Amino acid sequence: MHVPQLDDRLQDVYDAVVHRNGGEDEFHQAVCEVLETLGPVLDAHPEYLESGVIERLVEPERQIVFRVPWVDDDGRVQVSRGFRTEFSSTLGPYKGGLRFHPSVDAGIVKFLGFEQVLKNALTGLPIGGGKGGSDVDLRGRSDGEVMRFCQSFMTELHRHVGEHTDVPAGDQGVSAREIGFLFGQYKRITNRFEPGVLTGKGLDWGGSRVRTEATGYGLAYFVREVLAAHDTSFDGKRVVVSGAGNVALYAIEKVHQLGGTVVAVSDSSGFVVDDDGIDLELLREVKGGRGGQVTDYADQRDGATAGDGSIWQVPCDVALPCATQNELSDKDAAALVENGCRVVAEGANMPTTPEAVDLLREAGVLFAPGKASNAGGVATSAFEMQQNAARESWTADDVDGRLETVMSDIHARCLETAEAYGSPGDYVAGANIAGFRKVADAMLAQGVV
Ligand SMILES: NC(=O)C1=CN([C@@H]2O[C@H](COP(=O)(O)OP(=O)(O)OC[C@H]3O[C@@H](n4cnc5c(N)ncnc54)[C@H](O)[C@@H]3O)[C@@H](O)[C@H]2O)C=CC1
Ligand SMILES: O=C(O)CCC(=O)C(=O)O
């Protein structure tokens, strides 16, 4: 059990968050993890406490909850719930993805929105933070059902979004297909072709090259920096990746390009081990069909086996949790340490439990928090917004080059900040403090709003 290590000056802030957001455990967890690292910042900058910056930062600017009625293929009316948490517009329009998954509730979008504020600040780009989604379960639904759901969702959401206000994108369960349906409905309702209202669009109607790949590629670039800072590289490294969605697939692709070998991958059905290296083409084929499961991969590839237990028991040098929150427990962390894992870098948002983080850090495993290591996706969304505003379309090499630069800048900023605040080498402290300071200073400049 992780016991919060809070500075006395921050305990009241945390208690108020728990009281005010009852039952929203993931939000409490995300706030606690940040507050735990802010003590040294308050020693140097008491003005943050005096001006109520921290109390304001943990309270979303606006939370929108709405009904999403839609008709399924059998003519039955389904009622889902929609959410958008507009957390902070201090550095730019609210920016962050939409998640369509049955586990979505107010607490999940709030934790994701909070993480997004600091992540977006770390990118150095002019974007605030928000997140949204729905508790709808669209798995196995037809394209027509997905379209009707997205149209209904946007029929309410359109009032709250816009290129200068709030710019959603994809997340779990929301990819190019859903973004297309959402964009079409926004255009129809507003009678405006406004590409800057959503990111992750198709390339022919305002999308950016490399946005689809960006989170996974960015994660691999970040880990390359971590390894280089310790005089090593991906060459010859065994890598384990959880998830088999957008982030995981492109992380696997880039790890292979950078010289590592991904030896295991998972989805909600289980995991597979392939010591020769995951064959990405086959994995995409297996996952491509409706209801495709990674465990089917083992049936079609010599030497591959469907795993038993947890994917984190597979020996590796680098572990990349890319599926969902709290998927890597203390037991999993103990197995990673036991098997000699050197680096854990989060592709998903908050996939590592606090107990697991403690265990990894105590064992000297290099741990990169998602708000730093998975920031490449949102950074490339910000590039998409820049291209839309300028009516430009950059080349893939151009966008990829900018993505590499952003990831290496974030890495450097984390290390410099950790050093400056007395925790050399600590990526968690570095990411939290660097992101926090950028938002907090802008909040001070903008007055009590
Ligand atoms: N898509 C993006 O640009 C970004 C996504 N993220 C985060 O990355 C994570 C994954 O997102 P996407 O790849 O976009 O979603 P996705 O919906 O494309 O893929 C998610 C994958 O995880 C698997 N999964 C779900 N729960 C699992 C579990 N308990 N164990 C193993 N596998 C499980 C699913 O089967 C699916 O293959 C989420 O935490 C998301 O918030 C973070 C930054 C940007
Ligand atoms: O590209 C975006 O706006 C959102 C990406 C996202 O949802 C995330 O960083 O978790």
Low-confidence stretches: none
Portion of residues in helices?
40-55%
Total discrete domains? 3
CATH class of the largest domain: Alpha Beta
Strands, total number: 12
Gross CATH architecture of the largest domain? 3-Layer(aba) Sandwich
Distance between the termini: 37 Å
What portion of residues belong to β-strands? 15-25%
Protein name: Glutamate dehydrogenase
Subunit structure: Homohexamer.
Pfam families: ELFV_dehydrog, ELFV_dehydrog_N
Family: Belongs to the Glu/Leu/Phe/Val dehydrogenases family.
Describe this structure in words.
- Pfam families: ELFV_dehydrog, ELFV_dehydrog_N.
- It comes from Aeromicrobium alkaliterrae.
- This is Glutamate dehydrogenase.
- Homohexamer.
- 53% of the residues are buried.
- The protein has 18 helices and twelve strands.
- The protein has 449 residues and is α/β, with parallel strands linked by helices.
- Strand 6, helix 10 (246-257) and strand 7 (261-267) form a beta-alpha-beta unit.
- A seven-stranded mixed β-sheet has the order 9-8-7-6-10-11-12, with helices on both faces. A five-stranded mixed β-sheet has the order 1-2-4-3-5, sandwiched between helices.
- The site of 2-oxoglutaric acid (AKG) has 12 residues, from strand 3, helix 6 and helix 16.
Write a short abstract of this structure.
The chain has helices at residues 8-20, 25-35, 39-44, 47-50, 53-57, 106-122, 143-157, 176-190, 211-229, 246-257, 280-288, 295-299, 330-338, 354-362, 370-373, 376-390, 396-420, 427-446, and strands spanning 62-71, 77-88, 94-100, 129-134, 166-170, 238-242, 261-267, 270-273, 305-306, 318-321, 343-345, 366-368. The protein contains 18 helices and twelve strands. It has three domains: 1-59 and 426-449, Glutamate Dehydrogenase, Chain A, domain 3 (Orthogonal Bundle), CATH 1.10.285.10; 62-194, Rossmann fold (3-Layer(aba) Sandwich), CATH 3.40.50; 212-364, 3-Layer(aba) Sandwich (Rossmann fold).
